[in-house]
Amino acid sequence: MVTLFDASKKPARHPEKAHRPDNEILRKPDWIRVKAPGTKVFKETQKTIRDNDIVTVCSEAACPNIGECFDKKHASFMIMGEICTRACAFCNVATGKPYPLDKNEPKNVANGVAKLGLNHVVITSVDRDDLNDGGAEHFVDVVEAIREKCPDTTIELLTPDFLKKEGALEKVVAAKPDVFNHNLETVPSNYLSICPGSRYFYSIRLLQRVKELDPNMFTKSGIMVGLGETRNEVLQLMDDLRSANVDFLTIGQYLAPSRKHHPVKNFVTPEEFKAYETIAYSKGFLLVSSSPLTRSSHHAGDDFEKLRMARLAKLS
Ligand code: SF4
User: From first to last of its 316 residues, what are the pLDDT tens digits of the chain?
Assistant: First the structure.
């Protein structure tokens, strides 16, 4: 069966995937159960986000944890629009030609952080390969606006790779986010089919460069499993991240947003996730979150505290 897109309606979110054959959607195992959205606090969080003109990756990426996170007034903000210039095979964010940057966005995001009362905020973005600096300056503007409005809130940036944008990474690191996160997403053998616009070793180098620029900055990276990778490839990826001195690794189960996206190849069991966690700790990560529903920004505030504690314990 092939799902047809109705051209008379809104433009397709994923025009590049429209003509792909439909993939089978595997039935989720029992261990993937999430809190249903819709509580009173969930609706209040949604309203605050809407009223402040904010885009969240929680909604755009169809995150399975949205019920739990919004119910705790947690959200991860996605800046620079809702349209991405890349077309990764796993991602639910719309692909196409993005709109110009919204100059009010830094202020709106800072207001949203204040209204939600966030102690720790995760700011991510779409890829903006169309901008000369990949959006680095805009990241800096958002960090500065949050610092001004909410000086006690710690800031975690989850950035794109700024591929071929000279000086972009340096600008963002100079803004001194508390955590610098850049996701590898998957093992190198999957890059051509899953994230063809990105380069695995460029991303490793980017994370290494952050530590060179600021050795005290916490660095973090995440992958999805269930995309056809082998266990040995995941272990090699851990070594690659450790060679770049990355502090924190997140590993979660990939869930396909639609039949047109890359199919789930397998569901990794909770025991296998636990084994990845044990191995990753043995390789020297300060913190590891590895479970079916782990997402890059899930429990990010609590994890930031754990990171700080883990560093202190190591130093002492
Ligand atoms: S895990 Fe992250 S992206 Fe998902 S709902 Fe929570 S804050 Fe949003």
Answer: 444 444 445 667 888 888 888 998 889 999 998 878 889 999 999 999 999 999 999 999 999 999 999 999 999 999 999 999 999 999 999 999 999 999 999 999 999 999 999 999 999 999 999 999 999 999 999 999 999 999 999 999 999 999 989 999 999 999 999 999 999 999 999 999 999 999 999 999 999 999 999 999 999 999 999 999 999 999 999 999 999 999 999 999 999 999 999 999 999 999 999 999 999 999 999 999 999 999 999 999 999 999 999 999 999 8
DSSP H helix total and E strand total for the chain: 11, 9
Atom of ligand 1 nearest to the CA of 63: 4
Question: Distance between CA 169 and CA 47 in Å, rounded?
Answer: 33
Give, for ligand 1, the residue of 49, 68, 69, 179 to mutate: max count of ligand atoms closer than 8 Å to Cβ: 69
**58 in ligand 1 pocket by Cβ < 6 Å?**
yes
Which atom of ligand 1 is least distant from the CA of 65? 5
Strands 83-84 and 76-79: unpaired
| 177 token code pair | 């986010």
